[in-house]
Amino acid sequence: MLPLSYALRNLFRDKSRLVQTVGGSALVVLLIMAATALNGGMARTLSASGSPHNAILLGAGSEESIQRSEVSALLGGIAEASIPGVSTILGKPAVSPEIHYMTFLETPAGGKGQGLFRGVTPKALLVHPEVRITSGTFPGAGEVMLGRLAWRKLGLPAESLMPGSKVIIDGAELTVSGIFAAPGTVMESEIWAAIGDLHMLAQRETVSCVVMKMETLRDFAEAELFSQQRLDLELTAMRESDYYAALSDFYRPLRIMTWITAGLVAAGAVFGGFNTLYAAFASRIRELATLQAIGFGRAAVFFSLVQESLVACLAGTLLASVLAIFLLDGLTIPFSIGAFTLTVSPAVAVVGLVAGTLLGVIGSIPPAIRCLQPSLPKALRS
To answer: Which of 348, 335, 34, 329 is nearest to 186 (CA)?
Structure first.
């Protein structure tokens, strides 16, 4: 076998080729790591947003979008009295009527962004226990409370949305009462307001849905039975986790597109690597033949060429990993119903390492085979 130092020394014989190989592999690996983090972040956020213990009563035919749903504002009270198995927390049934409303939020400075508003009562905290108020207070009349990532979804400076700030919603001026966190869920990019205010702003007398926290997973059957018996209310019952799972399926084409884009770029990089390495190896055909003439086997020379490419691509992978930590980790990405945060997890790092290894190996095999194909006398005379 040829020593590793031979492959390392050859890497620095052509510095421009080295920079090209390391830079190209780093770009491809970074893109693949970004695609992995993006897909994982979106799927993780949507799956964490719904609890299997929560049942949602919404209008029949609105299973794909709560925003389109309209049910009676009295449904919350009817459900409390009619459905057994609803959790009781601190003596109060965990039933939360809600309005989901997409509209624009403006600031007095002229900033404007579209966000998802949720009209709620304090009982919303009973069915969404992951919500924690980190500063300020729960919104009362004339107030809104923002998720800690809402500024990113709205595209506005975080400083303009601090507690005490004034915001304008559909021409009405409201005060920011507080900031809340709901780690890993889409609620962190929502704006919560008193349900009475959203009745007026959305100009509707109905609510979008009623969310109930059930005692056990089996108690969901009671909510389902209620929706089937009360035909006059035109309801359907869904587990909250199923609703967000369906949303995750809705965004699957987008996630597939990111993989296709990363795959196309990777394929382009592999073909580019073929050309670069073939040019590099072809200029050394006589040298490679000399190595065989002095006793090194063709397999040993082949392995050394693959080693040379692999080391360059792994250097690119290391560079991509460092860039991913500084550029991607913690980056908040907005999408239509919220925002999610990219995380460069160990799984993402492993995907990058595997991609870099495959680039180094696959990209070097065809050029190495082609340059070692000529017979030894012919190669020595080349």
So the answer is: 335
